[in-house]
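Students often ask why we bother predicting the structure of a whole assembly rather than each chain alone. The short answer is interfaces. A chain on its own may look different once its partners are present, and contacts between molecules only exist in the joint model. In this exercise we take three input lines together and write out one structure for the complete complex. Read the inputs first and try to guess which parts will touch.
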Amino acid sequence: MAARIVNEFTKGFWKEIAPLRFALGICPALAVSTKVESALGMGFAVVFVLCMSNVLVSAVRNIVPDKVRIAVFISIIATGVVIVELVMQAYFYPLFLVLGIWIPLIVVNCVVLGRAEAFARKNPVLLSLSDGLGMGLGFTLSLVVISSIREILGDGTWLGMMVLPEAYPGFGFLLRPPGAFVIFGLVLGIMNVISARLENKTA
Amino acid sequence: MSLREIIQMVLVLTIVAAVCAGGLAAVKMVTMEQIEYQQIKFIKEPALKKILTDYDNDPISDRIQLVTGKDARGRDVSTTFFLAKKGSQLVSLAFESTGSGYGGPIGVMIAIAPEDDVVQGIAVTTQSETPGLGTKIIDDPSFSAQFADKPLSANFSLSAAGGQIQAITGATVSSTGVSNAVNRGIELYQAVKPELDL
Amino acid sequence: MQEYLLMIVAAMFINNIVLIRFMGNCPVVGVTSSVDSALGMGAAVVFVTTMAGTTCWIIQKTILEVLGIEYLQTLVFILVIATLVQFVEILMQKVAPPLYRALGIFLPLITTNCMVFGVSVLNIKEEHSFMETLVFSMASAVGFAIVLLFMAGLRERMDSAGRVPKLLQGVPITLITAGMMGLSFAGLMGLD
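Now the answer. The structure tokens for the assembled complex follow.
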């Protein structure tokens, strides 16, 4: 059992890392990845919603009739999202202003509903929690990777700290929307090559 | 689909909806005060800092609410007044007023010295004007400086309308919005002044 | 009239919902392998987004704001959209079977298309009037359909040319193409 919990947790980081492997949840990954700070804030918001929805969906999995399960899942997820909205407004207001509409949009993040439907409704609570935590942190990791590239090359900073020499002119293209698509595409391409190499080795 | 199934479905949905709404109402109650404080702190405080100069209290904690009018549905509308004090003497009174700009409403914080009825300064709090043009109402300090240190009896309309304020070139609508907000604010101030009990 | 025209151009191209506001990327990446399915998906999304945008606006103004429970917006909107999609599906099946055969398979996918929800929230956030809501929702959705269609056409070409480097085949090249498309859309910026 313990081994399975660990396994469900770690798969979210590489084997099934949602945005980079399946191109799921890419909208927020593109939108809030101009700065590492906002990427982290978004990531943790998703971790919370994902854990909460996975645990609750798994807890009610045997009493919810199949026909209305999507409506129930959506209600649970939306409740989690509103809690995040309120708490973020109350205690992290500047972050709330930066993330803006992307906080309510977590409700339609395919990763969240996807895990409820594909995993939590068939598995016990503890496994679902570990799956949610892993998937959520994997999502956060993807956002941090993309935003690190964009912030370092675009602005010369990382988490607000100067990392490139003062004279670095910055590469504004990366901070604008088209740059997000190009960087994301390139990162996905590199992921494909690395995993193809790894599979060749083990085969 | 049997009747039992339908009843079960309706029952489950009702319970889920009730629990969700109830839970959220509870979270809202707990966070409400804190959210209000944060909104004031991050949206109003920068504007307050710009226009209030000589005080030693925290105008955000020393705020009062007064009913200042009615909305279209006949419900009371209230305005928050921030009180800046030095020693225990009230030196200025700041509140927000709005006018309509090019991209939506423009919020303007106005500071008035109640002692001698002088506008001490104004600062834009919220706006959605065209970047680089209308946003000069914030970015160009010389525009808002025109309103500062003038008695309430001064004419705060744009010069095109016979007043003393020079509009920003290319951003007449935004400038008018600010000027209207100030005029409306002064009107409001004069209406509630007797109630303020200064 | 002129402000509506500006709003249409802005929503369709300059602030394109997919390329600039980043909403509704999943179908652009996932569905766009053929022009036919892109057309079907595009039409279904235009229909649902317009319906959802206006319905949510009415609910916001007549229920949420009157009762002072705006914080339930997220919960209420998503349930409205989910119900609406189901309703449209049933209605279409009954009233227009040919249309249902063409668009039906795309309908369930639309509930989780973040664009439908996003546009509904944007209408409230930007304080649109009812007419503006109608225009903005439809124009945004048409902007989505245009990108979907362009992308499908481009991908059909790229697949048949077979010259895409192995490293970038599939999703990566779609995203990079979207970036290039975004650049050209951004070129329209000075129009307004």
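Check your guess against this: The mean pLDDT of chain C is 86.
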